[in-house]
Amino acid sequence: MSMKLEGKTAIVTGAGKGGRGIGRSVALALAGEGADVVITSFTEANAEMVAREVRETTGRRALVIQGDVSKPEDVERLFSETLKELGRVDILVNNAGITRDGLILRMSEQDWDAVLDSNLKGAFLCCKAAARVMLKQKSGKMVNVSSVVGIAGNAGQANYSASKGGMNALTKTLAKELGSRGITVNAVAPGFIETVMTDALPEENREQMKKQVPLGRLGSPDDVARAVLFLCTDDSAYITGQILTVDGGLFM
After folding, report:
1. How far apart are CA 198 and CA 186, in angstroms?
2. Cβ-contact 192, 145 below 8 angstroms
3. Strands 183-190 and 62-66
4. From CA 24, how far away is CA 1, in angstroms rounded?
């Protein structure tokens, strides 16, 4: 049985958080359907951990390129090394992101800039670099990992929600700019997902979160990865400019 991404090359940013992060699950899901993956992360050791898991469980090639997606020179290197080693870029998943939470009156300009640079500027730089390659190929898939707070907002996350709202608008704009050349651009917007971050929350908080979700549970990184995978295959060939919420019905 042929795999849906056989012969494709995918770049997944922010996939080096190790453990149970969304980026790790996305890299494994894409490789599981036959794609070779490039994993980029600020922390090279974490990225190597994910790459090793990809190689061992799927047999696909996994390349690690350490870097900061908010820096143009790092993004340039990410794409030039990918093309040199693997020859093409068919899929870009913008998953890199950080949080610096705080109420607006206490939020420093530095915390605002750090989140917007990493989450939104990083996505812009990577999409721009990917577009150059994909326009020549006349095909490609871009998927931005956004958040439901980019749609609904969230107290204490002015910077994060603004970055994700901007990412949603960027997604729609690029879908209009690139669609005629066979490139689709979509986003997934996760809700409450089980990660190392939510593990640290008190049990009472986790139960309150579950009560808000119609499906009665927190999502898993694999739930998000399956949605990303769908948007990276030809199963979604006629879907572009969409924000797909993966939130158990939290925001309908």
Report:
1. 26
2. no
3. unpaired
4. 25
Measured distance CA(241)–CA(38) in Å, rounded: 24
Give DSSP secondary structure letters for 86-98.
Answer: HS---EEEE----
CATH architecture, domain 9-191+221-246:
3-Layer(aba) Sandwich (3.40)
Torsion angles phi and psi, residue 185, rounded to 5: -135, 120
pLDDT tens per residue across span 54-93: 999 999 999 999 999 999 999 999 999 999 999 999 999 9
As a residue count, the chain comes to 252
Query: Is 160 annotated as catalytic?
Result: yes
Q: Where are the domains of the chain?
A: 9-191+221-246
Hey, what amino acid is at 189? A
This prediction has a pTM of 0.96
Q: What is the mean pLDDT of residues 221-227?
A: 97
Q: pLDDT tens digits for 99-155?
A: 999 999 999 999 999 999 999 999 999 999 999 999 999 999 999 999 999 999 999
Residue 88: φ, ψ to 5°: -160, 165
Catalytic residue among 42, 112, 160, 192: 160
Nearest to 69 by CA among 130, 13, 24: 13
Comparing C-alpha atoms, which of 143, 169, 161, 164 is closest to residue 225? 143
Tokens of 8: 């494709």
Q: Position of tokens 């050349």?
A: 181
